[in-house]
Specification:
CATH topology of the largest domain: lpxc deacetylase, domain 1
Number of strands: 20
Helix content: 25-40%
CATH class of the largest domain: Alpha Beta
Shape: globular
Radius of gyration: 19 Å
Strand content: 25-35%
CATH superfamily of the largest domain: lpxc deacetylase, domain 2
CATH architecture of the largest domain: 2-Layer Sandwich
Largest sheet: 5 strands, mixed
Strand order of the largest sheet: 2-3-9-4-5
Structural class: alpha+beta
Number of helices: 7
Length: 294
Amino acid sequence: MRLQRTLKHEVCFEGIGLHTGKLSKVCLKPAPRDTGIVLVRTDKEMVIKATMGSVIDTAFSTTLGYNGVKIRTVEHMLAALSGLGIDNVIAEVNGPEIPILDGSSMEFLSIILKGGIAKQGKKRPYVKITRPMVFTDGNAEIAVFPYEGKRLTYRIHFNHHLLGEQQLSLELTEEVFAREIAPARTFGFLKDVEYLRANGFAKGGSLDNAILLSSDGILNPSGLRFKDEFVRHKMLDLIGDFSLLGFPIYGHIFASKSGHSANLKFLKKLSAYRDCWEMLSEPELEQQYAVIHT
């Protein structure tokens, strides 16, 4: 198991927001242990902690906010931080949305690794699932099961000949996240673009930062990065959303047809059902591993 982690050095990047189309600059800075992920709207002088309680909207992305100030589309950056096991960071943002970059978490990984990862002198606690819990929200279903490790299984189903049903199950390690999940881009349908833009969404969307599907096929000249890139991106979104719990989940997560709204509703239910999990410190987990593997 591991110590808490932050960055060694500050790193900055900029780009347009997927939904607002506005340019923002983000600086990721090292933070003391037990800080968590904290976002700062420098243009509004507002501090917003990346927790479930800060979520104010889940329409087409996850938006954090406080006292009328918001930061949209945080999930891809949060997924990259979570996927690399970064626990403590101050993210200064001078605009209303985290840049979409290429629509995946791959560029976020490169930026974070450029800053370097620093271990901190305190163990990282985990939420260990001790009993199954199932949550349904319309067609969406999310469940967690006891499991000696961290595993994610995800299933999607779309009425489109290129998507249909896709399912993937992966053991969640930093290497697996970087290789199998981080490169997967967000996606959308050509038929929905006009509606989205008329309602204040996807103003910064393009073939450079999203996979766009028509009824005939994929409009991106570069094609797909994975044949099942769509389910992999949904896994990426869930990892980003689940990081808002504040602690890694030690168990098997199963999700079907889930989105940002269901992800956050599930976390709230899990938090309330204390008989389904326990908080373990690293020494306790290390002791369990010693028992299992000797």
